Structure formats: structure tokens, C-alpha cells
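Deliverable D4.2, example record:
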Amino acid sequence: MIDFPGAKINIGLKITEKREDGYHNIQTIFYPVRLYDILEFIVLSPDAGGDRLTVTGLVPEGAREDNLVIRALEIIKNKWSLPYFEIHLHKNIPAGAGLGGGSSDAAFMMKMLNKCFKLGLSAEELKNQALRVGSDAPFFIENIPSYAEGRGELLTPLNQLGDDLYLVIICPGIHISTREAYHSCKPEKKGTNLSVYYRENISKWKDLIENDFEKIVFPKHPVLKEIKELLYKSGAIFSSMSGSGSAIYGLFRKKPVLPGSAERYICYSGPL
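Output generated by the structure prediction step:
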């Protein structure tokens, strides 16, 4: 079985509260984009001795057992008796970029298992299982534009943006630790609900929508602020860092002309 886990961008991100369980409450808008990994599995014989995972492409650091696809498989296998699998994950979504690639891979693995083995899990049940992998993983179960609260698991569907927008995502290869970024943040309840701003004309977003992590990450990595400024100079209607970074994206009315220094770090350029 094969599927194509997609990336997401964050349109705004507010860190509103530190929770007793150690997590943070946030407000953000998750928006799916057309940058995909490739995830495939086949069933092995009972004497295979275990599951096998091969990762190619933009291979993330870390041990095999830390891969979120394996974590997702273990969660499902703890409740259902399933065979051994040969899994191939080809990574096109950079790790540590705030694009949700690992969470998406895990969520899609759960959906694939649910479909292939007729486990009967509803979308809500899959979201509950996916939350055990990561706070943004439940979003990828339905994978539609959503306003997110709580840890990111309380999702309200939103209308899609117009199909006339062009998206550029620049990934300069700087790995940002989400855990460290949250550790440095200063939660604050303030301002208007992001879903209200989302309904405004995109031309107004620059003055309305912010990502709180930029205040933490940009001073440590000034090149990210420079990339954002470059995208605006190149005609972006709106530009932001995605999640805790380090990917910076711009929304345009048409394909922009970017300098070669930026072109080589583009990980997606195409329709939103």
C-alpha cells in the first residue's frame, strides 16, 4: 500500500498558556500544502522476525526506533494484531523545519493501516491515537485547513484560500528544536482569535497575523529574518515562519523571481 503524507504551514501561531502537563496551549492555523513524502508498506511473512524500515531522501537524524512511523505502528499494534511490515519512507519534507513531516508520516501510517486492515477507527478515534505521536499529528488525519487550539489537537475546519495563490517555501537547512523553542517562549493571552484574521483579505495579514516563535528564533538565526524580508521584497502578500521554524514561506499572486542565493534553498514552489 502506498500514500503521500503532505506537509503543512502555520498561518500565525500564538503561544497562550503553559499547561500543567508541560505542554503549551496555542492558537494557530494549519494549512496543508503540496509538498509530499512517499510512504509504502508491504506485508512480510510471519517468520520475518520483525518490522523493517528503510528511509531515503532527506533522511532525518536519529535511531530507527525514534522514527514516528515506527511509533505510529507500535501504537496501532498495541491494540490490534497485525503482521510484520516492510516499510519504505522517502522523505521530501525537511525535518526540523516546522512543516510537520514526521507527524504527517505517522498520521498517514495510521490511516493506511486502518484502511488496509479494516480496523474501523473513525476520524476522531484516529486523531486521538495520532495525538500520542505529536501535537500536530491529529491535523493530518483529515488534512484540511483548520484553526487549532489546545496543544494543536482541537481543530475547527476553515474554508480553503483561493486557488490563485502561489506558494514558495524556503528551507535554509537550519534545524530548530521545537522543544527548545517552547522552553524559551513567554506565553501570553492577548489579541483577536486567529480564525477572525484568517477571514480578512490576505493583503491585511502582514499587519494582523504573527508567529510568536519568530521573536525567539530570529535573534538566534538572523538569516531567517532576512529570508522573510527578501520574500516581501520579491512581492509576497504574506510571509511567515512555519511552526517553530526554520522554514520561511511566502504567498504570492504569481510565481516570483528570486535571487539565486534563495533559489537553491527552495523546497517547494508552486500552487498553494
